[in-house]
Amino acid sequence: MDVKNLPEAANFIEQFINEDIENGKVTSIQTRFPPEPNGYLHVGHAKSMFVNFGTALKYGGKCNLFFDDTNPSKEKTEFVDAIRNDIHWLGYEWARECYASDFFDTIYEYALRLIDEGKAFVCDLSAEEIKNTRGTLTEPGIESPYRNRTPAENRKLFEEMRAGKYKDGEKCLRAKIDMASPNVNMRDPVIYRILHATHHRTGDKWCIYPMYDYAHPICDYLQGVTHSLCTLEFEDHRPLYDWVGISLGFSPKPRQIEFARLNLTNTVMSKRYLKKLVEEKLVHGWDDPRMPTLSGLRNRGIPAEAIKDFCSRIGVAKANSECEYSYFEACVREYLNAHAERAMAVLSPLKLTITNYEGEEELDFDINQTDENAGTRKVKFGKNLYIESSDFSLNPPPKYFRLKKDGYVRLKNAYIVHCDDVVTDNDGNVCEILCTYIPESHSGHDTSGIKVKGVIHWVNADTCVDAEVRQYESLLRDADYAGQDFSERMNEHSETILAAKAEPYLANAKDGTPFQLMRTGYYKKCTEGEKLVLSEIVSLKDNFNKKQ
Ligand code: ATP
Ligand code: MG
Hints:
Blueprint lengths: L11 H11 L7 E4 L9 H16 L3 E6 L9 H14 L6 E3 L4 H13 L3 E4 L3 H6 L18 H13 L8 E4 L14 E5 L13 E3 L1 H12 L3 E5 L6 H10 L7 E5 L2 E3 L6 H9 L14 H7 L3 H11 L6 E3 L1 H15 L1 E3 L1 E2 L2 E6 L6 E6 L9 E6 L2 E5 L3 E2 L9 E2 L3 E4 L4 E9 L5 E8 L17 E2 L1 E3 L4 E8 L22 E8 L1 H5 L5 E4 L3 E8 L2 E9 L3 H5 L1
Parallel strand pairs: 1-2, 2-3, 8-9, 10-11, 12-27, 14-22, 18-19, 20-23, 25-29
Antiparallel strand pairs: 4-5, 5-6, 6-7, 13-26, 14-17, 15-16, 17-24, 20-21, 21-22, 25-26, 27-28, 28-29
Helix pairs in contact: 2-11, 7-8, 11-12
The protein binds adenosine-5'-triphosphate and magnesium ion (MG).
Protein backbone atom coordinates (compact mmCIF):
# COMPACT_ATOMS: atom_id res chain seq x y z
CA MET A 1 0.00 0.00 0.00
CA ASP A 2 1.45 3.31 -1.07
CA VAL A 3 1.49 5.76 1.85
CA LYS A 4 1.17 8.69 -0.55
CA ASN A 5 -1.97 7.35 -2.19
CA LEU A 6 -3.99 6.37 0.85
CA PRO A 7 -7.73 6.34 0.19
CA GLU A 8 -9.74 8.91 2.06
CA ALA A 9 -11.05 7.40 5.29
CA ALA A 10 -14.84 7.01 5.24
CA ASN A 11 -15.11 6.05 8.92
CA PHE A 12 -13.09 5.67 12.12
CA ILE A 13 -11.89 2.16 11.20
CA GLU A 14 -10.37 3.46 8.01
CA GLN A 15 -8.80 6.34 9.95
CA PHE A 16 -7.06 3.79 12.19
CA ILE A 17 -5.97 1.82 9.16
CA ASN A 18 -4.58 4.92 7.48
CA GLU A 19 -2.63 5.73 10.65
CA ASP A 20 -1.25 2.21 10.79
CA ILE A 21 -0.11 2.43 7.18
CA GLU A 22 1.38 5.90 7.66
CA ASN A 23 3.25 4.73 10.75
CA GLY A 24 4.62 1.77 8.86
CA LYS A 25 2.88 -0.76 11.12
CA VAL A 26 1.27 -2.52 8.17
CA THR A 27 1.86 -2.50 4.45
CA SER A 28 -1.15 -4.50 3.24
CA ILE A 29 -4.56 -5.09 4.77
CA GLN A 30 -5.88 -8.49 5.81
CA THR A 31 -9.27 -8.86 7.49
CA ARG A 32 -11.54 -11.83 8.18
CA PHE A 33 -15.26 -12.42 8.49
CA PRO A 34 -15.63 -14.77 11.48
CA PRO A 35 -19.06 -16.44 11.73
CA GLU A 36 -19.71 -19.24 14.14
CA PRO A 37 -21.36 -22.08 12.15
CA ASN A 38 -24.22 -22.42 14.63
CA GLY A 39 -26.99 -20.96 12.49
CA TYR A 40 -27.77 -19.01 9.36
CA LEU A 41 -26.43 -15.55 8.62
CA HIS A 42 -28.74 -12.58 9.11
CA VAL A 43 -28.81 -9.00 7.91
CA GLY A 44 -26.55 -8.00 10.84
CA HIS A 45 -23.88 -10.24 9.38
CA ALA A 46 -24.31 -8.41 6.09
CA LYS A 47 -23.08 -5.33 7.88
CA SER A 48 -20.12 -7.22 9.31
CA MET A 49 -19.32 -8.49 5.81
CA PHE A 50 -19.70 -5.03 4.38
CA VAL A 51 -17.14 -3.82 6.91
CA ASN A 52 -14.70 -6.75 6.64
CA PHE A 53 -14.86 -7.48 2.91
CA GLY A 54 -15.53 -3.86 2.01
CA THR A 55 -12.55 -2.48 3.91
CA ALA A 56 -10.16 -5.08 2.49
CA LEU A 57 -11.44 -4.35 -1.01
CA LYS A 58 -11.02 -0.61 -0.61
CA TYR A 59 -7.38 -1.05 0.43
CA GLY A 60 -6.58 -3.65 -2.17
CA GLY A 61 -6.20 -6.18 0.64
CA LYS A 62 -7.74 -9.54 1.42
CA CYS A 63 -10.55 -10.86 3.56
CA ASN A 64 -10.70 -14.45 4.76
CA LEU A 65 -13.73 -16.48 5.66
CA PHE A 66 -12.94 -17.73 9.12
CA PHE A 67 -15.24 -20.22 10.80
CA ASP A 68 -15.09 -19.84 14.53
CA ASP A 69 -15.80 -23.47 15.37
CA THR A 70 -14.57 -23.73 18.94
CA ASN A 71 -17.95 -24.76 20.30
CA PRO A 72 -18.57 -28.27 18.91
CA SER A 73 -21.90 -28.90 20.60
CA LYS A 74 -23.72 -26.25 18.53
CA GLU A 75 -21.93 -26.35 15.21
CA LYS A 76 -22.93 -28.21 12.08
CA THR A 77 -21.76 -28.66 8.48
CA GLU A 78 -25.24 -27.64 7.31
CA PHE A 79 -24.56 -24.18 8.70
CA VAL A 80 -21.09 -24.01 7.14
CA ASP A 81 -22.59 -24.68 3.70
CA ALA A 82 -25.41 -22.19 4.19
CA ILE A 83 -22.98 -19.50 5.31
CA ARG A 84 -20.72 -20.00 2.30
CA ASN A 85 -23.73 -19.83 0.01
CA ASP A 86 -25.06 -16.63 1.59
CA ILE A 87 -21.71 -14.84 1.34
CA HIS A 88 -21.46 -15.69 -2.35
CA TRP A 89 -25.00 -14.54 -2.90
CA LEU A 90 -24.13 -11.13 -1.47
CA GLY A 91 -21.31 -11.04 -3.98
CA TYR A 92 -18.24 -11.36 -1.76
CA GLU A 93 -15.23 -13.56 -2.46
CA TRP A 94 -12.98 -14.66 0.36
CA ALA A 95 -9.24 -15.01 -0.11
CA ARG A 96 -8.88 -18.06 2.10
CA GLU A 97 -11.34 -20.26 3.95
CA CYS A 98 -10.18 -21.44 7.32
CA TYR A 99 -11.49 -22.77 10.59
CA ALA A 100 -10.40 -22.32 14.18
CA SER A 101 -10.18 -26.11 14.20
CA ASP A 102 -7.44 -25.93 11.50
CA PHE A 103 -5.30 -24.35 14.19
CA PHE A 104 -6.18 -26.54 17.18
CA ASP A 105 -2.69 -28.11 17.27
CA THR A 106 -0.94 -24.76 17.32
CA ILE A 107 -3.41 -23.30 19.79
CA TYR A 108 -2.60 -26.25 22.06
CA GLU A 109 1.16 -25.74 21.62
CA TYR A 110 0.75 -22.08 22.54
CA ALA A 111 -1.10 -23.10 25.70
CA LEU A 112 1.84 -25.30 26.68
CA ARG A 113 4.11 -22.33 26.12
CA LEU A 114 2.00 -20.13 28.38
CA ILE A 115 2.09 -22.89 31.00
CA ASP A 116 5.88 -23.25 30.78
CA GLU A 117 6.29 -19.50 31.15
CA GLY A 118 4.05 -19.43 34.22
CA LYS A 119 1.30 -17.53 32.38
CA ALA A 120 -1.40 -20.22 32.63
CA PHE A 121 -2.46 -22.76 35.23
CA VAL A 122 -4.77 -25.73 35.54
CA CYS A 123 -7.61 -24.96 37.92
CA ASP A 124 -9.84 -27.50 39.68
CA LEU A 125 -12.58 -25.06 40.62
CA SER A 126 -15.97 -25.73 39.09
CA ALA A 127 -17.52 -23.24 36.65
CA GLU A 128 -19.82 -22.17 39.49
CA GLU A 129 -16.90 -21.59 41.87
CA ILE A 130 -14.99 -19.65 39.24
CA LYS A 131 -18.00 -17.45 38.69
CA ASN A 132 -18.45 -16.89 42.42
CA THR A 133 -14.82 -15.91 42.94
CA ARG A 134 -14.63 -13.53 40.01
CA GLY A 135 -15.56 -10.52 42.11
CA THR A 136 -17.71 -7.67 40.85
CA LEU A 137 -17.21 -4.40 39.05
CA THR A 138 -16.35 -2.78 42.37
CA GLU A 139 -14.64 -5.66 44.20
CA PRO A 140 -11.61 -7.67 43.13
CA GLY A 141 -11.88 -11.41 42.62
CA ILE A 142 -10.39 -14.12 44.81
CA GLU A 143 -7.33 -15.99 43.59
CA SER A 144 -7.81 -19.68 42.92
CA PRO A 145 -6.09 -22.02 45.41
CA TYR A 146 -4.59 -23.78 42.35
CA ARG A 147 -3.04 -20.61 40.97
CA ASN A 148 0.45 -21.33 42.23
CA ARG A 149 0.89 -24.79 40.79
CA THR A 150 4.34 -25.16 39.23
CA PRO A 151 4.70 -25.11 35.46
CA ALA A 152 5.73 -28.76 35.53
CA GLU A 153 2.63 -29.76 37.45
CA ASN A 154 0.41 -27.65 35.17
CA ARG A 155 1.94 -29.22 32.07
CA LYS A 156 1.34 -32.72 33.39
CA LEU A 157 -2.28 -31.95 34.31
CA PHE A 158 -2.97 -30.18 31.02
CA GLU A 159 -1.59 -33.13 29.06
CA GLU A 160 -3.81 -35.41 31.11
CA MET A 161 -6.79 -33.16 30.34
CA ARG A 162 -6.03 -33.57 26.67
CA ALA A 163 -5.60 -37.32 27.04
CA GLY A 164 -9.15 -37.59 28.38
CA LYS A 165 -8.35 -38.39 31.98
CA TYR A 166 -10.93 -35.97 33.37
CA LYS A 167 -14.63 -35.42 33.00
CA ASP A 168 -16.27 -32.29 31.55
CA GLY A 169 -15.85 -29.38 33.94
CA GLU A 170 -13.54 -31.23 36.32
CA LYS A 171 -10.58 -29.01 35.42
CA CYS A 172 -9.83 -26.13 33.10
CA LEU A 173 -6.87 -24.06 32.00
CA ARG A 174 -6.85 -20.44 33.07
CA ALA A 175 -4.63 -17.55 32.05
CA LYS A 176 -2.76 -16.17 35.03
CA ILE A 177 -3.32 -12.46 34.73
CA ASP A 178 -4.75 -10.37 37.57
CA MET A 179 -7.68 -11.17 39.86
CA ALA A 180 -7.77 -7.51 40.92
CA SER A 181 -7.97 -6.13 37.40
CA PRO A 182 -10.74 -3.55 36.97
CA ASN A 183 -11.61 -5.47 33.79
CA VAL A 184 -13.39 -8.66 34.83
CA ASN A 185 -12.29 -10.39 31.59
CA MET A 186 -8.70 -10.16 32.82
CA ARG A 187 -9.35 -11.98 36.09
CA ASP A 188 -7.65 -15.26 35.24
CA PRO A 189 -10.05 -16.11 32.38
CA VAL A 190 -10.61 -19.72 31.40
CA ILE A 191 -8.78 -20.41 28.13
CA TYR A 192 -9.39 -24.16 27.74
CA ARG A 193 -12.24 -26.33 28.87
CA ILE A 194 -12.86 -30.06 28.88
CA LEU A 195 -15.70 -31.06 26.57
CA HIS A 196 -16.19 -34.66 25.48
CA ALA A 197 -18.07 -33.78 22.31
CA THR A 198 -17.66 -34.80 18.69
CA HIS A 199 -16.54 -31.89 16.57
CA HIS A 200 -18.02 -31.52 13.07
CA ARG A 201 -14.52 -31.42 11.58
CA THR A 202 -12.04 -32.90 14.03
CA GLY A 203 -14.32 -35.69 15.21
CA ASP A 204 -13.15 -37.13 18.53
CA LYS A 205 -9.56 -35.99 18.24
CA TRP A 206 -10.01 -33.45 21.01
CA CYS A 207 -11.80 -33.51 24.32
CA ILE A 208 -10.50 -30.09 25.29
CA TYR A 209 -11.46 -26.97 23.38
CA PRO A 210 -10.00 -23.45 23.51
CA MET A 211 -12.23 -20.58 24.56
CA TYR A 212 -13.11 -17.94 21.99
CA ASP A 213 -11.18 -15.09 23.66
CA TYR A 214 -8.00 -17.13 23.66
CA ALA A 215 -8.37 -18.81 20.28
CA HIS A 216 -9.43 -15.77 18.29
CA PRO A 217 -6.26 -13.65 18.60
CA ILE A 218 -4.18 -16.73 17.77
CA CYS A 219 -6.24 -17.58 14.70
CA ASP A 220 -6.09 -13.96 13.57
CA TYR A 221 -2.33 -13.96 13.92
CA LEU A 222 -1.87 -17.28 12.13
CA GLN A 223 -3.93 -15.98 9.20
CA GLY A 224 -1.87 -12.79 9.02
CA VAL A 225 -4.86 -10.64 9.96
CA THR A 226 -3.82 -7.01 10.32
CA HIS A 227 -7.14 -5.62 11.52
CA SER A 228 -9.61 -7.76 13.41
CA LEU A 229 -12.91 -5.93 13.01
CA CYS A 230 -15.64 -6.97 15.40
CA THR A 231 -18.70 -5.64 17.15
CA LEU A 232 -18.76 -3.47 20.25
CA GLU A 233 -19.51 -6.20 22.77
CA PHE A 234 -15.89 -7.29 22.31
CA GLU A 235 -14.48 -3.94 23.39
CA ASP A 236 -14.05 -5.14 26.99
CA HIS A 237 -12.33 -8.24 25.66
CA ARG A 238 -9.68 -6.29 23.77
CA PRO A 239 -7.24 -6.20 26.75
CA LEU A 240 -7.37 -9.99 26.79
CA TYR A 241 -6.98 -10.12 22.99
CA ASP A 242 -3.88 -7.97 23.39
CA TRP A 243 -2.62 -9.96 26.40
CA VAL A 244 -2.66 -13.18 24.36
CA GLY A 245 -0.78 -11.52 21.49
CA ILE A 246 1.81 -9.91 23.73
CA SER A 247 2.31 -12.99 25.92
CA LEU A 248 2.92 -15.14 22.86
CA GLY A 249 5.17 -12.52 21.27
CA PHE A 250 3.08 -12.01 18.13
CA SER A 251 4.72 -9.65 15.67
CA PRO A 252 3.10 -7.91 13.96
CA LYS A 253 0.24 -8.23 16.41
CA PRO A 254 -3.23 -7.96 14.84
CA ARG A 255 -5.21 -4.91 15.92
CA GLN A 256 -8.78 -5.37 17.13
CA ILE A 257 -11.19 -2.55 16.28
CA GLU A 258 -14.83 -2.61 17.40
CA PHE A 259 -17.82 -1.09 15.63
CA ALA A 260 -21.54 -0.87 16.41
CA ARG A 261 -23.83 -3.80 15.68
CA LEU A 262 -26.72 -3.35 13.35
CA ASN A 263 -29.99 -3.45 15.28
CA LEU A 264 -33.29 -3.21 13.44
CA THR A 265 -36.72 -2.48 14.89
CA ASN A 266 -39.49 -5.11 14.59
CA THR A 267 -37.14 -8.03 14.22
CA VAL A 268 -34.76 -10.26 16.17
CA MET A 269 -31.27 -10.78 14.95
CA SER A 270 -29.68 -13.10 17.40
CA LYS A 271 -29.08 -16.54 15.90
CA ARG A 272 -30.21 -18.11 19.15
CA TYR A 273 -33.66 -16.54 18.84
CA LEU A 274 -33.94 -17.17 15.12
CA LYS A 275 -33.18 -20.81 15.81
CA LYS A 276 -35.95 -20.88 18.38
CA LEU A 277 -38.44 -19.51 15.83
CA VAL A 278 -37.45 -22.29 13.43
CA GLU A 279 -37.48 -25.06 16.04
CA GLU A 280 -40.82 -23.99 17.48
CA LYS A 281 -42.22 -23.82 13.95
CA LEU A 282 -43.31 -20.22 14.33
CA VAL A 283 -41.92 -19.74 10.81
CA HIS A 284 -41.62 -22.14 7.85
CA GLY A 285 -37.83 -22.43 8.17
CA TRP A 286 -34.58 -20.46 8.23
CA ASP A 287 -35.44 -19.10 4.79
CA ASP A 288 -39.01 -18.07 5.60
CA PRO A 289 -39.55 -14.76 3.77
CA ARG A 290 -40.35 -13.05 7.07
CA MET A 291 -36.99 -13.99 8.59
CA PRO A 292 -34.15 -11.43 8.73
CA THR A 293 -31.75 -14.17 7.66
CA LEU A 294 -29.96 -13.65 4.36
CA SER A 295 -31.64 -16.80 3.04
CA GLY A 296 -35.00 -15.40 4.15
CA LEU A 297 -34.35 -12.05 2.49
CA ARG A 298 -33.21 -13.83 -0.66
CA ASN A 299 -36.32 -15.99 -0.64
CA ARG A 300 -38.36 -12.86 -0.08
CA GLY A 301 -36.92 -11.51 -3.32
CA ILE A 302 -34.80 -8.76 -1.81
CA PRO A 303 -31.86 -8.13 -4.12
CA ALA A 304 -28.35 -8.50 -2.68
CA GLU A 305 -27.47 -5.07 -4.11
CA ALA A 306 -30.21 -3.44 -2.03
CA ILE A 307 -28.81 -5.02 1.15
CA LYS A 308 -25.32 -3.80 0.39
CA ASP A 309 -26.66 -0.36 -0.46
CA PHE A 310 -28.43 -0.28 2.90
CA CYS A 311 -25.21 -1.27 4.71
CA SER A 312 -23.30 1.46 2.99
CA ARG A 313 -25.91 4.08 3.86
CA ILE A 314 -26.16 3.26 7.55
CA GLY A 315 -22.40 3.63 7.81
CA VAL A 316 -19.99 2.41 10.43
CA ALA A 317 -20.23 3.99 13.86
CA LYS A 318 -18.70 3.53 17.26
CA ALA A 319 -21.99 3.80 19.18
CA ASN A 320 -24.85 1.30 19.18
CA SER A 321 -28.22 2.44 17.92
CA GLU A 322 -31.37 0.97 16.46
CA CYS A 323 -32.25 1.44 12.83
CA GLU A 324 -35.89 1.63 11.74
CA TYR A 325 -36.95 -1.36 9.68
CA SER A 326 -38.73 1.06 7.38
CA TYR A 327 -35.36 2.54 6.43
CA PHE A 328 -34.20 -0.88 5.27
CA GLU A 329 -37.41 -1.24 3.28
CA ALA A 330 -36.95 2.20 1.75
CA CYS A 331 -33.57 1.08 0.37
CA VAL A 332 -35.17 -2.06 -1.08
CA ARG A 333 -38.02 -0.05 -2.58
CA GLU A 334 -35.66 2.44 -4.14
CA TYR A 335 -33.64 -0.31 -5.77
CA LEU A 336 -36.70 -2.13 -7.08
CA ASN A 337 -38.31 1.05 -8.34
CA ALA A 338 -35.32 1.49 -10.61
CA HIS A 339 -34.96 -2.17 -11.58
CA ALA A 340 -38.27 -4.04 -11.41
CA GLU A 341 -40.61 -4.43 -14.39
CA ARG A 342 -44.18 -3.22 -14.01
CA ALA A 343 -47.18 -5.54 -14.28
CA MET A 344 -50.78 -5.71 -13.16
CA ALA A 345 -52.57 -8.09 -10.83
CA VAL A 346 -55.85 -7.72 -9.01
CA LEU A 347 -55.70 -9.00 -5.46
CA SER A 348 -59.38 -8.96 -4.67
CA PRO A 349 -61.07 -9.31 -8.08
CA LEU A 350 -64.34 -7.63 -8.98
CA LYS A 351 -65.82 -8.19 -12.42
CA LEU A 352 -66.14 -5.14 -14.67
CA THR A 353 -67.90 -5.45 -18.04
CA ILE A 354 -67.71 -2.75 -20.71
CA THR A 355 -71.05 -3.08 -22.43
CA ASN A 356 -70.20 -0.96 -25.47
CA TYR A 357 -66.77 -2.45 -26.22
CA GLU A 358 -66.39 -5.16 -28.86
CA GLY A 359 -63.32 -7.03 -30.02
CA GLU A 360 -59.88 -6.63 -28.46
CA GLU A 361 -56.80 -4.49 -28.84
CA GLU A 362 -53.25 -4.42 -27.61
CA LEU A 363 -52.15 -1.50 -25.48
CA ASP A 364 -48.59 -0.28 -24.93
CA PHE A 365 -47.26 -0.52 -21.39
CA ASP A 366 -43.99 0.91 -20.12
CA ILE A 367 -41.87 -1.91 -18.81
CA ASN A 368 -40.34 0.49 -16.30
CA GLN A 369 -41.13 4.16 -16.74
CA THR A 370 -38.11 5.18 -14.62
CA ASP A 371 -35.79 3.53 -17.13
CA GLU A 372 -35.68 5.12 -20.58
CA ASN A 373 -34.15 2.04 -22.10
CA ALA A 374 -36.65 -0.44 -20.69
CA GLY A 375 -39.11 -0.08 -23.59
CA THR A 376 -42.73 -1.11 -23.75
CA ARG A 377 -44.72 -4.30 -24.05
CA LYS A 378 -48.23 -5.14 -25.24
CA VAL A 379 -51.16 -5.84 -22.92
CA LYS A 380 -54.46 -7.18 -24.26
CA PHE A 381 -57.55 -5.11 -23.52
CA GLY A 382 -61.13 -6.36 -23.88
CA LYS A 383 -64.65 -5.95 -22.64
CA ASN A 384 -64.36 -8.35 -19.70
CA LEU A 385 -62.05 -7.10 -16.98
CA TYR A 386 -61.35 -7.44 -13.28
CA ILE A 387 -60.64 -4.48 -11.08
CA GLU A 388 -59.70 -4.33 -7.42
CA SER A 389 -62.88 -4.55 -5.33
CA SER A 390 -61.49 -1.80 -3.12
CA ASP A 391 -61.45 0.47 -6.18
CA PHE A 392 -65.24 0.53 -6.27
CA SER A 393 -67.54 1.94 -3.64
CA LEU A 394 -71.33 1.86 -3.43
CA ASN A 395 -71.34 4.43 -0.66
CA PRO A 396 -68.29 6.52 -1.43
CA PRO A 397 -66.97 9.00 1.12
CA PRO A 398 -66.42 12.59 -0.08
CA LYS A 399 -63.46 13.05 -2.42
CA TYR A 400 -63.59 9.43 -3.55
CA PHE A 401 -61.76 9.44 -6.89
CA ARG A 402 -62.02 5.77 -7.76
CA LEU A 403 -65.08 4.15 -9.30
CA LYS A 404 -68.58 4.80 -7.99
CA LYS A 405 -72.02 4.53 -9.50
CA ASP A 406 -72.54 7.17 -12.21
CA GLY A 407 -68.89 8.10 -11.86
CA TYR A 408 -65.87 8.08 -14.16
CA VAL A 409 -62.46 6.56 -13.68
CA ARG A 410 -59.51 5.92 -15.97
CA LEU A 411 -58.36 2.36 -16.51
CA LYS A 412 -54.57 2.45 -16.41
CA ASN A 413 -53.07 2.97 -19.89
CA ALA A 414 -56.50 2.41 -21.46
CA TYR A 415 -59.80 4.31 -21.48
CA ILE A 416 -62.05 6.30 -19.25
CA VAL A 417 -65.09 4.28 -18.23
CA HIS A 418 -68.39 5.32 -16.77
CA CYS A 419 -70.18 3.14 -14.24
CA ASP A 420 -73.76 2.72 -15.39
CA ASP A 421 -74.99 0.00 -13.12
CA VAL A 422 -74.01 -2.69 -10.67
CA VAL A 423 -75.12 -6.30 -10.30
CA THR A 424 -75.57 -7.55 -6.74
CA ASP A 425 -75.95 -11.04 -5.37
CA ASN A 426 -78.69 -12.26 -3.02
CA ASP A 427 -76.90 -10.77 -0.03
CA GLY A 428 -76.64 -7.37 -1.67
CA ASN A 429 -72.91 -7.63 -2.36
CA VAL A 430 -71.67 -6.07 -5.58
CA CYS A 431 -70.53 -8.87 -7.89
CA GLU A 432 -70.26 -7.10 -11.23
CA ILE A 433 -69.95 -3.58 -12.51
CA LEU A 434 -71.46 -2.55 -15.83
CA CYS A 435 -69.66 0.27 -17.59
CA THR A 436 -69.48 2.08 -20.90
CA TYR A 437 -66.17 3.32 -22.21
CA ILE A 438 -65.39 6.60 -23.92
CA PRO A 439 -63.73 5.72 -27.26
CA GLU A 440 -62.01 9.16 -27.54
CA SER A 441 -60.33 8.82 -24.13
CA HIS A 442 -57.49 6.49 -25.08
CA SER A 443 -54.45 7.11 -22.87
CA GLY A 444 -51.89 9.27 -24.57
CA HIS A 445 -54.33 10.70 -27.14
CA ASP A 446 -57.37 11.61 -25.12
CA THR A 447 -59.67 14.07 -26.88
CA SER A 448 -62.75 13.38 -24.76
CA GLY A 449 -62.42 16.48 -22.62
CA ILE A 450 -63.57 14.48 -19.57
CA LYS A 451 -61.53 15.20 -16.45
CA VAL A 452 -61.01 12.24 -14.13
CA LYS A 453 -58.87 12.19 -11.02
CA GLY A 454 -58.70 8.46 -10.43
CA VAL A 455 -56.61 5.92 -12.33
CA ILE A 456 -57.09 2.26 -11.43
CA HIS A 457 -55.39 -0.94 -12.55
CA TRP A 458 -57.16 -3.92 -14.07
CA VAL A 459 -56.59 -7.30 -15.70
CA ASN A 460 -58.25 -8.79 -18.74
CA ALA A 461 -60.69 -11.45 -17.51
CA ASP A 462 -60.41 -13.47 -20.75
CA THR A 463 -56.63 -13.83 -20.67
CA CYS A 464 -55.70 -13.51 -16.99
CA VAL A 465 -54.37 -16.32 -14.83
CA ASP A 466 -55.05 -17.28 -11.24
CA ALA A 467 -52.32 -16.37 -8.80
CA GLU A 468 -51.76 -16.95 -5.14
CA VAL A 469 -50.61 -13.70 -3.58
CA ARG A 470 -48.71 -13.82 -0.30
CA GLN A 471 -48.39 -10.72 1.77
CA TYR A 472 -46.21 -10.26 4.81
CA GLU A 473 -46.04 -8.11 7.85
CA SER A 474 -43.20 -8.02 10.32
CA LEU A 475 -42.85 -11.08 12.51
CA LEU A 476 -42.73 -9.01 15.64
CA ARG A 477 -44.79 -6.17 16.93
CA ASP A 478 -42.95 -3.17 18.28
CA ALA A 479 -40.74 -3.72 21.29
CA ASP A 480 -43.06 -1.63 23.45
CA TYR A 481 -46.05 -3.78 22.48
CA ALA A 482 -45.50 -6.40 25.17
CA GLY A 483 -42.81 -7.93 27.33
CA GLN A 484 -39.23 -8.19 26.24
CA ASP A 485 -39.61 -11.85 25.38
CA PHE A 486 -40.15 -12.03 21.64
CA SER A 487 -42.63 -14.90 21.98
CA GLU A 488 -45.08 -12.38 23.48
CA ARG A 489 -44.44 -10.04 20.59
CA MET A 490 -45.18 -12.45 17.74
CA ASN A 491 -47.49 -10.94 15.16
CA GLU A 492 -50.00 -13.72 14.39
CA HIS A 493 -51.07 -12.02 11.18
CA SER A 494 -47.67 -11.78 9.60
CA GLU A 495 -48.68 -13.87 6.58
CA THR A 496 -51.81 -13.35 4.42
CA ILE A 497 -52.78 -15.45 1.39
CA LEU A 498 -55.04 -14.02 -1.33
CA ALA A 499 -56.56 -15.50 -4.49
CA ALA A 500 -55.69 -13.01 -7.20
CA LYS A 501 -55.98 -12.59 -10.97
CA ALA A 502 -52.82 -11.68 -12.84
CA GLU A 503 -51.66 -10.77 -16.32
CA PRO A 504 -50.50 -13.85 -18.24
CA TYR A 505 -47.15 -12.08 -18.66
CA LEU A 506 -46.44 -12.84 -15.00
CA ALA A 507 -46.97 -16.56 -15.48
CA ASN A 508 -44.42 -16.57 -18.30
CA ALA A 509 -41.74 -14.63 -16.42
CA LYS A 510 -38.69 -16.38 -15.04
CA ASP A 511 -39.05 -17.60 -11.48
CA GLY A 512 -37.55 -15.24 -8.97
CA THR A 513 -38.15 -12.10 -11.06
CA PRO A 514 -39.26 -9.10 -9.02
CA PHE A 515 -42.18 -7.02 -10.33
CA GLN A 516 -43.87 -3.86 -9.32
CA LEU A 517 -47.53 -4.80 -9.30
CA MET A 518 -48.88 -1.38 -10.12
CA ARG A 519 -50.53 0.42 -7.21
CA THR A 520 -49.90 -2.62 -4.99
CA GLY A 521 -46.25 -3.29 -4.26
CA TYR A 522 -43.17 -5.22 -5.23
CA TYR A 523 -43.68 -8.96 -5.62
CA LYS A 524 -41.52 -11.90 -6.57
CA LYS A 525 -42.83 -14.28 -9.18
CA CYS A 526 -42.44 -17.99 -8.54
CA THR A 527 -44.22 -21.21 -9.38
CA GLU A 528 -45.10 -24.01 -7.01
CA GLY A 529 -46.21 -27.03 -8.98
CA GLU A 530 -48.80 -25.58 -11.37
CA LYS A 531 -49.49 -22.62 -9.15
CA LEU A 532 -48.39 -19.09 -9.93
CA VAL A 533 -47.28 -17.43 -6.70
CA LEU A 534 -46.67 -13.72 -6.25
CA SER A 535 -45.02 -13.10 -2.92
CA GLU A 536 -44.59 -9.68 -1.45
CA ILE A 537 -41.09 -8.26 -1.31
CA VAL A 538 -42.00 -4.84 -0.03
CA SER A 539 -45.12 -2.73 -0.13
CA LEU A 540 -45.28 0.33 -2.33
CA LYS A 541 -45.70 2.66 0.62
CA ASP A 542 -44.22 2.68 4.08
CA ASN A 543 -46.46 0.35 6.10
CA PHE A 544 -44.92 1.19 9.43
CA ASN A 545 -45.99 4.79 9.30
CA LYS A 546 -49.35 3.93 7.74
CA LYS A 547 -50.33 1.52 10.49
CA GLN A 548 -49.43 3.73 13.40
P1 ATP B 1 -25.60 -13.90 16.97
O1 ATP B 1 -25.68 -13.25 18.30
O2 ATP B 1 -26.65 -13.51 16.03
O3 ATP B 1 -25.39 -15.37 17.05
P2 ATP B 1 -22.90 -13.61 16.67
O4 ATP B 1 -22.17 -12.36 16.93
O5 ATP B 1 -22.80 -14.66 17.69
O6 ATP B 1 -24.35 -13.26 16.31
P3 ATP B 1 -21.17 -14.71 14.81
O7 ATP B 1 -21.41 -15.82 13.89
O8 ATP B 1 -20.26 -14.92 15.93
O9 ATP B 1 -22.55 -14.25 15.31
O10 ATP B 1 -20.82 -13.38 14.03
C1 ATP B 1 -19.88 -13.26 12.99
C2 ATP B 1 -19.51 -11.82 12.91
O11 ATP B 1 -20.65 -11.04 12.59
C3 ATP B 1 -18.97 -11.31 14.22
O12 ATP B 1 -17.82 -10.54 13.98
C4 ATP B 1 -20.08 -10.49 14.75
O13 ATP B 1 -19.57 -9.44 15.53
C5 ATP B 1 -20.76 -9.99 13.49
N1 ATP B 1 -22.16 -9.66 13.74
C6 ATP B 1 -23.10 -10.46 14.27
N2 ATP B 1 -24.25 -9.81 14.41
C7 ATP B 1 -24.06 -8.56 13.94
C8 ATP B 1 -24.87 -7.38 13.82
N3 ATP B 1 -26.14 -7.38 14.21
N4 ATP B 1 -24.31 -6.27 13.30
C9 ATP B 1 -23.04 -6.27 12.90
N5 ATP B 1 -22.22 -7.33 12.98
C10 ATP B 1 -22.71 -8.46 13.51
MG1 MG C 1 -21.48 -15.74 18.48
